[in-house]
Write a structure and sequence with these properties.
Blueprint (H helix, E strand, L loop, with lengths): L3 E4 L2 H12 L4 E3 L6 E5 L3 H11 L8 E3 L15 H10 L4 E6 L14 E5 L4 H10 L3 E2 L14 H8 L5 E4 L10 E4 L6 E4 L5 H8 L3 E2 L25 E5 L4 H13 L4 E5 L1 H9 L4 E3 L4 H18 L2 E5 L7 H12 L8
Parallel strand pairs: 1-8, 2-8, 4-6, 5-9, 10-11, 12-15, 13-14, 13-15
Antiparallel strand pairs: 2-3, 3-7, 4-7, 5-6, 9-10
């Protein structure tokens, strides 16, 4: 199979529509990361997404719809606070998990009676969703557990020869996946943190819970991103807390003395200091939004430049940083820890 990368225009959208409606998959941009999309109503298409990604069959997908889509066609319960969240944050990087009407493939939610739905704000995503005219399920367009893609080139790195079309909408600006919020109960509960923060939701809904960052024994995931090992570069990783700088520098010296290419990943001020001292560091950024936007691109850069990535947690906490730290910790998790 030849994988074509095309800018988004009338011709590429017509091609994407034909692929989606015939049961194929298409990679497309959102404001957060690129998605690997298939027709949510087509069981075979949904199965293909799991197979192409190598995705575990207990990890649910998100249905993407265009602005103005009638949610009552696919979800069964819509509390007033959910409507308020949609008015405030959609289109945008927020996914809401509702009781499902069972109209999509049962593979989408891995047998659960819920459905995660998102309305992306990226104009290319909106054009694509309007063109195909059906809900599109789309996990991030990367091989399972690999770093999420924020450019068409990242998608091509993972899926060249495996999918027919990548719609190129430029670099994603958000950089980490959408916030996922369960709206099946009396108040919203965040299942995966992201750019729409708990504080923002709480101000609007009055109360907002947060699920544990990883699943407990026997628990089923209601949302993507709840597995322990995720978003990971293809190099060894070491993660140190914000006050573990001395230990991180010791690790850098040990690795380089052993002949390994070592590279730091840390917030801007520390990266500047380390680079000035000749200890190679990737600059994650100087604020939460900047760190979110840069994280995945730097993880992909690291796997090409380093044998071992030595990450130091940023000092900033709360807000967007909850999502950044969630992704950083999962990216650097030990591969032998079960999910």
């Amino acid at each position: 199979m030849i994988t074509r990368v095309k800018k988004i225009d009338a011709d590429s959208l017509a091609e994407a529509r034909e692929i989606i409606l015939s049961g194929g998959v298409v990679a497309f941009p959102t404001e957060t990361v690129y998605g690997l999309g298939g027709n949510a109503l087509d069981d075979g298409a949904v199965k293909s997404i799991f197979e192409i990604k190598g995705r575990p069959n207990d990890n649910p997908l998100i249905a993407h719809v265009c602005e103005g889509y009638d949610l009552s066609r696919i979800v069964d319960f819509d509390p007033p606070y959910a409507a308020a969240l949609r008015r405030a944050f959609l289109p945008g990087p927020l996914t809401l998990v509702y009781p499902s009407r069972g109209k999509v493939s049962p593979r989408v939610s891995c047998g659960l009676d819920t459905l995660a739905v998102r309305v992306p704000s990226h104009p290319g995503a909106q054009a694509f969703l309007r063109a195909v005219g059906v809900p599109v399920v789309a996990p991030s367009a990367n091989l399972s557990k690999h770093v999420s893609p924020t450019s068409a080139a990242h998608v091509l790195d993972d899926f060249d020869g495996k999918i027919p079309l990548i719609l190129d909408g430029g670099a994603c600006t958000g950089g980490i996946e959408s916030t996922v919020c369960d709206v099946t109960g009396e108040y919203p509960v965040i299942l995966r943190p992201g750019l729409v923060t708990r504080e923002m939701i709480e101000r609007l809904a009055g109360r907002c819970g947060a699920a544990p960052a990883t699943l407990g024994p026997g628990e089923k995931a209601k949302s993507p991103g709840m597995l322990y090992k995720h978003y990971s570069p293809r190099c060894r990783t070491l993660l140190f807390p914000e006050d573990g700088r001395a230990e991180a520098e010791d690790a850098f010296r040990r690795e380089t003395a052993a002949g390994n290419r070592a590279l730091f990943l840390c917030e801007g001020k520390l990266a500047d200091e380390l680079n000035a001292r000749g200890m190679s560091a990737l600059n994650l950024g100087y604020c939460g939004e900047e760190m979110a936007a840069r994280l995945y691109g730097l993880l992909r850069e690291a796997e090409k430049r380093a044998d071992v990535l030595i990450a130091v947690e940023p000092a900033e906490r709360g807000g967007v940083m909850t999502g950044v730290l969630n992704r950083l910790k999962k990216a650097c998790a030990s591969a032998d820890i079960p999910h």
